[in-house]
User: What shape does this take?
Amino acid sequence: MSVSPATLPPVLLHSEAELARAALATPLLSRAVRLARWAGPDTRVGAGGELVDAQLPAAAAELGLATDDPDAAAYASEAWRVAVDTGLVDVTDAEEEGAEGTVTQGEDLALLSAGSPQDVLGIWLGALDTVYADATVPDMENLLDVLEANGEVDFEELGWDPQAEADFLDGVLGNLYLLTVGDAAGGESPVPLPALAASMIVPDDMGEPTDDILEQVSDAMMKLDDQFRVFEPLGLVEYQPVDEALMADIDEDGPEPAPVDDEDVSRYGMVRLTPLGLYGVRARMLEAGVDAPAVGDLADKGADALLDGTSGFPQHAAQAEIEGWLARHEPLDAARELLVAARGGDEGAPLRRLRCQQALSLVGNEAEPALRDVLDDPELGGLARVWLAEHGAADVPAPSQDLIFWLTIDTLAAQLAVEGNSDELQGLVEGLAQQHSGFFATAWRVEHPATADVLEAMGRLHPDKKVAKEARKAAFKARNL
Assistant: This one.
């Protein structure tokens, strides 16, 4: 499975117990379990383990499907295939060629009621593999049209490349995963199907899409519409299908379809990964060797790994990871370990100290001795004073001007690493320059590795040309100090 970033943002997964309950409640796995419990000595299967046609009506009835439902046999066949592929039933092939095989309940069936959440999720992932394979297979009618005499499919005539189809679906789900884990709302917002299709088709550097590109996006949307309909019964996605009126050709002899409101994007399909879907897509990524971190991966690591690891996390994910880490440590020990890890003059050090401040803000007054121990530290003394003041500590020494300026540069460097040239950072820069009229005259002398970069960024961000020029001059002096 291929996704663009070398390292994905961390995903906040539900607990395995919650995910296992969700897996058991999915329509497709529920049907597979019912058929596995229904199967007995009289159940007959074909050479591939599929139910023989004569038994499909009974299987559909077991699932509570109406006898006049034209899709009943297909639903029963799909559920049975999942039961076979996941080991809920064991197939015994017939000894004679052309004869029917038999089935017994598989050992894994009992795991769904007596096993661990990991056991349940393992079976669900097996079902996902089956559905994934089905989603990349072309329409059965088209397959029959190109079936060769020897029973092999002529892929060239069909115009179907199995690997390309799998890669395309991997890419789509990878992009959907990225959009979900990067969503500050926690992945609650569904993604419009046209946007998801376009993310796979339209080149990043293309301005106005050509007619050919738009046609490819439209074809991809129709393909994804079919695939997401297949995935939804397994709980991978929540999907609002494409409005049938949009796909229907205008009947020349009949009334035209109702006009489409182009602004109502939901009519073109909306999709979101469920919590179970996030788990499933991540599992497939890990199996493919993709680095797909989850919140909680750093809980048993040292403070250095925590601060380095969360440096690239979105704010909400960093907060959750830090809270999990702190839950495993005594407050005073945690504070001391965090402060040691926050030291350094490397490029990532300012952001480590920012994450350290974030972590220390969650620690109670028990950590006070650790903060007092670093009051004279040139790198940590500023944040220690801030923490002690916020916690109402007495006898906190006032910071020197050098320390104030050093802490300001350090904080701005960290904010630049997190936000880049954001509106929020621009506001911070404007406020700082307005509050301290002689800031640049002193700031260029600050002995901090990021001083020149910070001053240069301030010159780039400040809207006042005169102030921006002062910042650039200060940056030049700092580089030549």
